[in-house]
Amino acid sequence: MNPDVFGVYVHIPFCVHKCNYCDFLSFLGAGDAHREYTKAVLQEIEELDEDRRQVDSLFFGGGTPSAIDSSLIVSMVEALKNKFSFSKDAEITIECNPGTLTGEKASDYIRCGINRISFGLQSTDNKVLKMLGRIHTYEDFTQSLDIARRAGFTNISADIMSALPGQSVNDYVNTLNTVAELGLQHISAYSLIVEEDTHLYEHLKDYPPLPDEDAERNMYHVTEDILAGAGFYRYEISNYAKPGFESRHNKSYWELTDYIGLGLGASGFYKGKRYSNTSDIKTYIDGTAKGELSFIREVEESSVKDRIEEYMFLGLRKMEGVSYSEFLKIFGQDIHSIYADVISKGIKQGLLEEYNNPAEGGVYLKLTSYGIDVSNTVMSDFIID
What we know:
This protein is of the alpha/beta class. 40% of the residues lie in helices and 24% in strands.
C-alpha cells in the first residue's frame, strides 16, 4: 500500500448490447444520453476536494467506455488532470469491446494520455461469442488490436473466459494458445459465474451443459501452464502479465490503496472511508446538477475488523500473498494475534504456506496451489467472529 498515491475509477454504463451473462450496471444509450451523463461526471469531478497526492492510476470501466464518443472520454481525462496531479508514468486504462474501436478513437485516447487498453475478447470461437451475446467476432478483435497498435498502444490486455456452456477443455486450450501468441502484455482469465437476473441464468436450460467440476479445474490449471510458456506470469488468481505489465490499478484494489470512484454505481475507498454512488441514473444526473456529492453518495461505515478481513481476502488473491510486516504497519497488530489458529490450520492442511521474501520485507503468507483450487473455502476462514 502506497500512501503517497491514489487511483481513480470512472464508470461508463453504456453498451451497444447487453451480453447474456452480464450482471454489471450497464444499459443501452445513444448520443444525447452519453453527453448528459458525461456532463454529470464532470460535475462530480468539479465537486471533489483537492488532494496533494498524485493519481497513479486511472481506469475507465463499464459498460463499454469505447462505445461513447472519444471526445467525451477526453473531456473527463482533461478534467481530472486539471483537478489532480498525475504521476509521470501514471497508468491510464480504457476498457474496449472489439468492434467499437476506430482509428480516430484510438488516436484521441493516446493524445489525452490513455496508455493502456483492455479488450473484452472472451473467446476466439465465433460460435461461442454469439452464444454469449457478444457483438463482435474474433476477426473484429484482431482488427481492433491492429487499430490500437497503429495508434501507439504498447500495453494491451485481453479478457478470456472458461467454463462456458458446451465448452470442452480442448476448446478452451485452443483459445488460450491463440491468445497467448498475439503479443499481448496482459491477460485476464476468468471462470464463468452464472449470475441471477441475467439472460443466461433465466434461460440456462436452453444452453449446452456447463462443464463439470473436473473439466473446469483442468481449464483452471492449463491456463497457467500455457501462458507461462508464452512468457506470462501469474500475479493474481485470475491475472497474468508479461514482466512489468501488471495492472497497477487492480493491484491498488488488492492492496487497499485509496481510490475515488466516479459515475453511476461507482464505489470508492478514500481517506479511510468507503462509499458508493447511486445506481439510479436519474438520481445521479439530478444529484450532480445540485453540486453536492451527498445527493448521490452513501458513505459506508468500515470497521477495523472489516478492513482486516478485506485486506486478507484481497491480499491472498495475489500470488505473492500477504506481507506480515505490511499487516503490522497498516493495522498496528501482529497478524498472529488475530489469525494464529487459522494460519496454523491452513498450513497443516496444505492450503497456506509461509515464505521469506527479504527483498520485499520479510515473511509472507500465500495460498498453495491446492489452496488456490479451493480459495473460497480458505478465504472464509479469515472472517473474524
